[in-house]
Amino acid sequence: MAMVPRKMQSRATRNIFSASDDTTMTKNVRATHAPDDRHVEVRPLLNVVQDILHRVASLIPDIVQGKPVQTGAVEDSNHQSDLAEVLDISYYTINQISCEICCKCSSGDGHATTMGILSMLSGYSWDAKVVIALAAFAANFGEFWLVAQLYATNRLAKSVAKLKHIHETLEQVDDLGLKFETINNLFKAMLDVTNYIVQFHELPSRYIHPEAPEMLTASILFPGAVYWTIRSILFCASHLLDITGLAHGYMTTITESWELSSLAHKLDNLNGHLRKQITLCHLHLDDNKQREAFETLQLLFETSHQDNLKALKAMFCSNNDPLPLFDGSSKQRVSIEVLRRKIVLLYISDLQNVSDQELVIFEQMYIESRQDSTRLESQYELVWIPVVDKGIPWTELKPKFDMVQSTMSWYSVYDPTALEPATIRYIKEVWLFKAKPILVVLDPLGKVVNLNALPMMWIWGSLAYPFSISKEEALWNNEKWGLVLLADSIDPSLLYWISEGKYICLYGGDDMDWIRKFTRTAYALAAALQLPLEMIYVGKSNPGKKVQETINAIQAEKLSNVLPDLAIIWFFWVRLESMWHSKSQHSKTVENDNIMHEVMRILTYDSGDSGWAVISEGTGSMAQGKGDAFLRCLNEREQWKDTAKDIGILPAMADYIQGLQAPHHCNRLILPGSSGGVPDSVVCAECGKTMEKFYMYRCCNE
User: Fold this and answer.
1) What sign does the CA torsion over 643, 647, 650, 654 have?
2) Entry pTM
3) Which of 48, 115, 419, 595 lies 20 to 30 Å from 122 when distance is taken between CA atoms?
4) In degrees, to the nearest 5, what angle opens at C-alpha 159 toward C-alphas 158 and 164?
5) What is the pLDDT of residue 36?
6) CA nearest neighbour of 38 among 97, 92, 86, 100
7) 431: pLDDT strictly greater than 80
8) What SS3 class is residue 535?
């Protein structure tokens, strides 16, 4: 093969870098492009090419320094069948291009050779052109270094090496370092450009049309990118020949290194443009993909099915994960099949607004429902879906996620970051999740029967099964206001006291002076009237350090019974708030619903600064009021004792407390945010007037 003097090649290259007209070059390259109907899946071929170049890059330093080369185990490729199909189509072309590169890489006219190769590849797509050209070079390059690798240990390789002058090259290594470093940089740039071009052609037209603006802009870059990659291939091939000629006077020059660096810079510049466009294309593609996924979820949850798996798979298995759930009882990953034809409760929350108290009560309810698998109320499954903030690194959120998940014996999403944006959007836009947890209920066929069953769960527990809106209405129709609804089973002794017909007083607040006066006065009056009285302190909503200190003081001074666990106190108040939310969802108000009226009164008491109390005789009549009015009623027994003889003690107390209500009062009602929002107007539970609406932002970090 004739060698062109290095000075002539360098001058020719400098002329091309300085005087080439990219517009004219692009036009000429496009003129060679006449793709036919053949489609070549080039990814398997590119994988092989990358494997050759990466392995050679890792072997060269040891080979040129004469060090023993470690050969790794041969791995079978998963794409062998695909690769065989590609080679059937392009084997002849690859060999033809390989010969063209070997014969003309050192001709001195890289431009003409490149255009010749492009003409030979005219019938292929842009991605196939560049991958086939790269494969043709990789075959020669890999063969050269395979012989170099085996030279010291294999007689056949040694003989071949002598014919190719490889043995002389390996014996003179002083000048190879800079050459290989520069070539490696060019290899990387060539592979990057090739990968980007292939990625563009792999984009699914289902989500991004070839005529989309992002794709059209990218297609303008393809001719130049393919052209300069093939030019770079020719330079690398020329270097390969130079390596074998080092012993005959063809030494590496600074100009040669500059030429290769310039080509790498050219490709890096193209890479920057291609990278930008592929990013824009992926954004366009992802938008369309998520839009389709969102519409699919809408359709699935609005359509009847034979079971619930289609809808649940669309929600949890969008990445084809066969085990998207985590079983809190077995601590194992499980498939979506565990939910087939079950009533499924989706507990949706973020990681900031899920409280320890809520998890404790939830756990108690869930375990209770599992104790007898034959009970109808146990035929449901609970799944926690944490909605994580994608703006915060998962490494920062995962410890909290792991901690919360470890407390759950039910199912949860194994990897919240794997949930598709369309799923999160659906949860927020259709199921109205904001910040506070919600409990969405799906029937065994995957139909949504309740957008938020949390109020039902807190009020009635498993008795709310199957947690549908119609069940909620039926439960309310059978309820009446009284101590059983108000207090449920917050204290083990409560039902016993009720059966004994005792007077039971629930009181709250955190004013210890009032608590001391009230409890002592109440017990004294009960003793005087010979009334069996039991008193329980129920604290305040969102109980914290101050409520715990109040509990400790009440116990130390033996003032009354208490709810000793803050989680139980939290549950008492969240049940009341849930009653308000549930009634509101059914369009009940203070004016048209007695339970709503009584719940509002107690919530108003809790929102104030003073204490409050409710006294009930078993499941019968009740008296309730703010702390000062109630204490005054107890102290002024003489004022209502005659009325008590006619209508009873508690009705008389209730009337007297009502009479103590000042004509001018200032009641507050603090309602926690909910997924359904807050009503535009709320009337005062005492006077019936519409309350003014204010916005309050509170941080209770006790």
Assistant:
1) negative
2) 0.75
3) 48
4) 95
5) 84
6) 86
7) yes
8) strand
How large is the greatest C-alpha to C-alpha distance in the chain, in angstroms? 128
- What backbone phi and psi angles, to 5 degrees, belong to 640? -125, 5
Q: Kindly write down the DSSP assignment for every residue of 590-652, as one continuous string.
A: TTT-HHHHHHHHHHHHHHSSS-EEEEEETTS-EEEEEHHHHHHHHHTGGGTHHHHHHH-HHHH
Instruction: Report yes or no: 358 and 439 within 8 Å, Cβ to Cβ.
Output: no
Which position has the token pair 């769960």?
A: 457
Q: Which is nearest to 228 in space by CA: 205, 194, 276, 195?
A: 194
SS3 438: strand
- Cβ-proximal residues to 599 (8 Å cutoff; 6+ apart), any chain: 576, 579, 580, 583
Cα separation, 567 vs 563, whole angstroms: 9
Q: Which residues of 464-476 are buried (b: 16+ CB within 10 A; e: fewer)?
A: bbbbbeebbeeeb
Measured CA to CA, the distance from residue 541 to residue 672 in angstroms comes to 10
CA distance 518 to 534: 13
Measure the CA–CA gap between 552 and 529, rounded to whole angstroms.
29
Q: Which domains, ranges and CATH numbers included, belong to the chain?
A: 34-287 (no CATH), 309-417+427-475 (3.40.30.10), 483-659 (3.40.30)
Q: What is the pLDDT of residues 75-110, one digit of tens each?
A: 555 445 555 655 655 678 888 888 888 877 766 688
- How many Cβ atoms are within 10 Å of 568's Cβ, its own excluded? 20
| Listed ranges 27-41, 62-76, 177-191, 450-464; the one with the highest mean pLDDT | 450-464
Residue linked to tokens 């890479």: 271
Each residue's pLDDT tens digit, 131-151: 999 999 888 888 777 777 776
Q: CB atoms < 10 A from the CB of 104, how many? A: 20
Q: How many CB atoms lie within 10 A of CB 435?
A: 12
Task: Name the burial class of residue 14, with classes exposed (0-12), middle (13-18) and buried (19+) by CB atoms within 10 angstroms of its CB.
Answer: middle
Handedness of CA 519, 523, 526, 532 (dihedral sign): positive
Residues 346/411, Cβ–Cβ less than 8 Å: no
List, in sequence order, the alpha helices (H) in 430-565.
454-460, 469-477, 483-487, 494-499, 512-529, 545-557
Dist CA 354 CA 352 (whole Å)? 6
pLDDT number for residue 86: 56
With vertex at residue 384, the alpha carbon angle to CA 379 and CA 390, rounded to the nearest 5 degrees, is 160
Supply the DSSP symbol for 425. H
Segment 246-275 shows an average pLDDT of 74
| Nearest residue to 654 via CA among 619, 615, 605 | 615
Specify the DSSP element, H or E, that contains 441.
strand 438-442
The residue count for the chain? 702
Closest CA to 49 of 98, 96, 114: 98
Contact 308, 341 (CB under 8 A): yes
Query: How large is the C-alpha radius of gyration of the chain?
Result: 40
Contact partners, residue 62, CB within 8 Å, separation at least 6: 68, 69
Task: Tell me the pLDDT tens digit for each residue of 563-610.
Answer: 988 889 999 999 999 999 899 888 888 788 889 888 888 888 887 777
First-residue to last-residue Cα distance in the chain = 86
Average pLDDT over residues 193-221: 90
Per DSSP bridges, beta strands 533-537 and 325-327 are unpaired
CB 48 within 8 A of CB 141: no
Q: What is the pLDDT of residues 493-529, one digit of tens each?
A: 888 898 888 999 999 998 999 999 999 999 999 999 9
Helix (H) / strand (E) element for 561: namely: strand 561-562
